[in-house]
Amino acid sequence: MKRTLFKTGMLLALTAALFTAGCSKPDNEPFESITTSIRVTEKGQSDDLAEKWIIAANSNNNGLGDVRIEVENEMVWNLIEVNREYFVAYQGSKQKGYVLGQIEQVEE
Q: What is the pTM of this model?
């Protein structure tokens, strides 16, 4: 009986520790997931072509302003056109930057 209680207690403690570690952020930085309509105003890439990004204006005009979004997939970046409207989902923070998750062209 004591052994079963001990095992149950250890299992609960381990589960609580894993849950706490998985839900905490080491730097306590806020993480945002944003879904909105944007108009791409600019495209850019680093000198070594390793990083690619877009600068976009929020079409909904809800105070987000212009945002720089890193595009990890080069083929996706190649298909994005300046002055076109897109529906996007991106994640990240103002401090560390945003990364494009999904993008879909809006029919104009």
A: 0.70
